[in-house]
Amino acid sequence: MKYISTRGQAPVLSFEDAILAGLATDGGLYVPETLPQFSQEEIASWAGLSYQELAFKVMAPFVDGEIPDDDLRELIANTYSTFRHDAIAPLVQTAHNEFILELFQGPTLAFKDFALQFLGNLLDYVLKKRDQRVVIMGATSGDTGSAAIEGCRHSDNVDIFILHPHNRVSEVQRRQMTTVLENNVFNIALKGNFDDCQNMVKASFGDQSFLPEGRQLVAVNSINWARIMAQIVYYFYAGLALGAPHRPVAFSVPTGNFGDIFAGYLASRMGLPVDQLVIGTNANDILHRCISANDHSLHQLVHSLSPSMDIMVSSNFERMLFDLYDRDGAAINKLMTDFKATGNLKLSDSALTKARELFTSYRLDDDEMVRVIADVWEHTEYLLDPHTAIGVEAARKTRRRQDIPMVCLATAHPAKFPEAVRKAGYPQDPPLPHHMADLFEREERYAVQDNELSAVQQFMKDNIRQ
Ligand SMILES: Cc1ncc(COP(=O)(O)O)c(C=O)c1O
Ligand SMILES: N[C@@H](CCOP(=O)(O)O)C(=O)O
Q1: Are 376 and 95 in contact (CB under 8 A)?
Q2: Record's Pfam families (predicted)?
Q3: Which of 51, 208, 246, 410 has its CA 20 to 30 A from that of 289?
Q4: CATH of domain 86-109+226-423
């Protein structure tokens, strides 16, 4: 399997090289040259597989033998052994044909664990094999950071630097990152927003000359192909549990950087019968405006009660555009260059038509989201986190068919977001799981930095281990 850039001008890479490259040298994102295709018979034969067995079936064609099968199986087994539920991604029914896919049973309580615990193990494996040391640089609006740190904290070959927007993540999210005191882990609280963090990461990938000789940057954000690949698995898992491929399923996904829903789109391209993909956004609604009104223009980023989705520039939308524009790298290069210059992007008529066939979208402000948490609690005693609530309501508002099961992705545990949950009338802070019960007593360490690329890079230079 070869990996190509969405902008068509970077070298074509193997799986391992694409994973280590992060952003392509032309500024694009790596995608597989062709997608594996699974027949309906093959998918049907996977009914009843464990999550780990299914993960191997879905991911092996992307790895394409670069990692021996037994080693890949072991990486998968180690990854999901740290999850708190045997089913790994349990399904809970909340209404007729409405299901919640709990993706928060991993060590850091968000869906990011599915891919980032795997990526941590994968990087450790590849770097040991190559006897190579790297520097990880990542941006987080709250969840990627702790999952990436958890995945890499024990890796000797990695120094990890995570930028989060200062005072813009929940206290639980911040502490999950800043209480990890291993000497290869560095948290930077940037005086800016998530887009500033993400821009710094992308700029640093573009010019890595600030790094010590012999080191390279590796990405843990969903610009890294391994993130998307590992997330495709749970779409198949949920689909199979609900009768696919004999019956179609629909998915609703609270969306920010477009990695999660893009994985759902790929699952459908690979053979899973998906009837509908619903994009739910908070007030940072660029994706909803794009689908509903062909308005993909930058607005001021606002601080919401679903802070992990306080994102304006969605990295993975570029991967989607690549497909919507028939994989024309030159066209994507122009679109993205113009978007950077003008802050505006209009889809062509044919791209918009295709996008609307694939996706519906809905936007919720904080008040509406809080009402959804309260309503679902009242009717089912199921406590949603604010991001999941956005997906649930987006599904209810834009659902095309009631007879098809709608799977709403529960992307985080409500204990991460006590402020939103309390606003919904829940009488207490939802308890943290046992392994995090003492989170508020643990010592924290992080550096507050001005929103200046050179200052951040200097901090990194000063702290990368020899
Ligand atoms: C809890 C939660 N829900 C939803 C999202 C959106 O996912 P994506 O960025 O893959 O669209 C994120 C982060 O991005 C998140 O942390
Ligand atoms: N919501 C994310 C933002 C980063 O997205 P990623 O999926 O590209 O890593 C977070 O919690 O950090």
Answers
A1: no
A2: PALP, THR4_C, Thr_synth_N
A3: 410
A4: 3.40.50.1100
CB 162 within 8 A of CB 221: no
Where are the domains positioned within the chain? 86-109+226-423
Whole-number average pLDDT of the chain: 98
Distance 307 CA to ligand 1 centre (A): 9
The alpha carbon of 440 and the centre of ligand 1 are apart by a number of angstroms equal to 24
Kind of pairing, strands 274-281 and 296-297? unpaired
d(CA 292, CA 464): 45
E strands, 55-184, in order: 91-95, 98-102, 134-139, 158-165
260 CA: nearest ligand 1 atom? 10
Distance 195 CA to ligand 1 centre (A): 14
Q: What is the distance in A from the centroid of ligand 1 to the CA of 114?
A: 13
CB contact at 8 A, 109 and 102? no
- Among protein residues, the one whose CA lies closest to atom 9 of ligand 2: 221
Cα of 308 vs centre of ligand 2, distance in Å, is 7
Using CA atoms, how far apart are residues 401 and 15, in angstroms rounded to an integer?
Answer: 38
pTM: 0.98
Which residues have CB under 6 Å of ligand 2? 140-145, 221-222, 256-257, 259, 308, 315
| Nearest atom in ligand 2 to 309's CA | 1
Best CA proximity match to 75, nearest among 132, 134, 17, 151: 151
Pocket test for ligand 2, best of 187, 221, 258 (most atoms within 8 A of CB): 221
Q: Kindly report, residue by residue over 347-364, the tens digit of the pLDDT.
A: 999 999 999 999 999 999
The one-letter amino acid code at 455 reads A
Task: Give the mutation target among 140, 195, 198 for probing the ligand 2 site: most ligand atoms within 8 A of CB.
Answer: 140
How is residue 378 written in tokens? 């009242």
- DSSP letter for each residue of 25-72: TTS-BEEESS-----HHHHHTTTT--HHHHHHHHHHHHHTTSS-HHHH
Angle at 455 between CA 450 and CA 461, to 5 degrees: 140
Q: Which ligand neighbours the alpha carbon of 262 most closely?
A: 1
Q: Which residues are known to be catalytic? A: 112
CA 131 to CA 125: how far, in whole Å? Answer: 10
**Cβ < 6 A, ligand 1 pocket:** 110, 143, 222, 254-261, 308-309, 387, 411-412
- Strand bridging mode 134-139 / 217-218: parallel
Report residue 26's pLDDT band, with 50, 70 and 90 as the boundaries.
very high
Measured CA to CA, the distance from residue 170 to residue 187 in angstroms comes to 15
pLDDT digits (tens, 9 = 90+) for 254-286: 999 999 999 999 999 999 999 999 999 999 999
CA–CA separation, 198 and 67 (whole Å): 30
pLDDT (0 to 100) of residue 2 = 98
